[in-house]
Amino acid sequence: MSKIIAFTNQKGGVGKTTSTANIGAGLARAGYKVLLVDLDPQINLTSGLGLTEAEFNVYGALLQEYKVKAYPIQDNLALIAGSPALSSFEKVKGDELDREFLLKDLLEPLLERCDYVLLDCPPALGLITLNAYACANALYIPLEAQLYATDGLEKVLEMVTRVQRRLNPTLVVGGIFFTRFDPRKVLRRETAEVVRDKYPDLVLTSTIRETIALGEAPHLGQDIFTYAPTSAGAMDYGHLVQEILTR
Ligand SMILES: Nc1ncnc2c1ncn2[C@@H]1O[C@H](COP(=O)(O)OP(=O)(O)OP(=O)(O)O)[C@@H](O)[C@H]1O
Ligand SMILES: [Mg+2]
Question: How many whole angstroms separate alpha carbon 157 and alpha carbon 151?
Answer without folding.
Answer: 10
